[in-house]
Amino acid sequence: MQKRVSQLFAFAHPVSLPKLRDPSLLKTQCYVNGKWVDAKSKKTFIVDNPSTLAEVSKCPEFDQQDTEEAILTAQSAFTSFRKTPARERARLLRRWHELMMENMEDLALIITLENGKPLADARTEVKYAASFFEWFSEEAPRIYGDTIQASNPGCRLMTVKEPVGVCSLIAPWNFPAAMITRKAGPALAAGCAVVVKAPGEAPLTALAIAELGHRAGIPAGVFNVITALENTVEIGKVLTTHPVVKKVSFTGSTGVGKILMNQASSTIKKLSFELGGNAPFIVFDDADLDVAVRGLIACKFRISGQTCVCANRIFVHASVYDTFVQKVLEVVKTFRIGDGLDSETTHGPLIHDRAIAKVHEHVQDAVSKGARIVHGGERLTEVGARFFGITLLADMKPGMKICDEETFGPVAAFFPFETEEEVIRVANETEVGLAGYFFSRDNKRCWRVAEALDVGMVGVNVGAISDPAAPFGGVKQSGFGREGSKYGIDEYLITKMIMTGIDT
Fold this sequence. Notes:
This protein is α/β, with parallel strands linked by helices. The chain has helices spanning 64-81, 86-102, 104-115, 119-139, 178-190, 204-216, 232-241, 254-264, 289-300, 321-332, 353-368, 401-404, 420-427, 443-452, 485-488; strands at residues 4-8, 11-15, 30-32, 35-37, 44-48, 55-60, 146-148, 155-163, 166-170, 193-197, 223-226, 245-251, 270-274, 279-283, 311-317, 372-375, 391-394, 411-417, 432-433, 435-439, 457-460, 475-476, 479-480, 493-501. InterPro entries: Ald_DH/histidinol_DH, Ald_DH_C, Ald_DH_CS_CYS, Ald_DH_CS_GLU, Ald_DH_N, Aldehyde_DH_dom, Aldehyde_DH_Superfamily, Succ_semiAld_DH.
């Protein structure tokens, strides 16, 4: 592959491409029934590096027939895997976790090559992703039912938890490792078998995880990974309508979620959807501004703003507005934008041209309606085709696209506000409700605002809220169901009631 070039505006220096310590982790085939297979059509698609647009690899372009065979493979494996003792499932997941940690550098490199995020962020993701296998290895032996006192004294009543069956797991590209393990961990802990649809933009990480699962001893057919780019819609329909599939877990946009939900209704499947967000980030006049700045930096600009929980609308009390924006600007000026393989890079590219176009559209719309560019605001074509400058927009007002649409890019939009009642009302004026953040040193206000925000997750004086022990998910059109935490495994279980008559 060609040399990568990383630069911050006029500054540039060459980047050498590190090699995988274990080249066998870079897979170019799908993983079905414990084997590496091509699409029956032999068609492939190119996976490129968003930093350089250079080809990283090719992956199979699976179609409907390929997908149906993977589903039937999972069904066959499920019949035996569901009977595997919980402790054995726990040991398998624990070993998988250990292998991910042992191969962290290679996994991080693969993530950076196909996703573009800096290596430091990729390493953090690998640790986070592996933590879900560790967490759910500990939950597997703790799947408990209940004994219930029946109304009829001649009966005894109990419940047991059973795996739901074959699960379709549809994962996004922004966290190509963690969004798979956060779904597969609880599914396998519960005793389910899965078919993972890897993101077409970044499928190589999923395939590497599959290889490590193979080494960990995951039985053939229990964990399957399929890839496609052009056939994504076709495959999505199969995964959501096939009668063998009993559960669908999807992370992605609200628009796509509605389509998949409608398709899944044809066979009444169990669903958990983590969809789009439009997170408010509120800085009150009594906040510790330095803490709030650190929280915003962690929340807004992680992987160049391409996260579903990153701040989209930043509300700052008028009395501290100018000071806060200036403090954020001082930090942003230290960022280095470039190839994620460069150790000095803090922020990488956007994933594709559509992402660049949307960010540019949001900035232009805001400026045309009176917003002021404090920093950035332009494509960085001198860095590469998919780079957009870290952008700060001040004097934001209602009616701008950023108010209603998730930007999913490196744009921090600052809105001034005067009262607590006003900012809560505006923060809740959105059809989605995934995450929300606010900063205040008033204990009573903290409880009031946390309970008043219409979101599934609240960060109080903290900007990073993801944790394997925390239930992740939203309300309204941000979806339903929870991932991670003790609640996450329930998404892959059904409750069966057993009543026994004791009178003869």
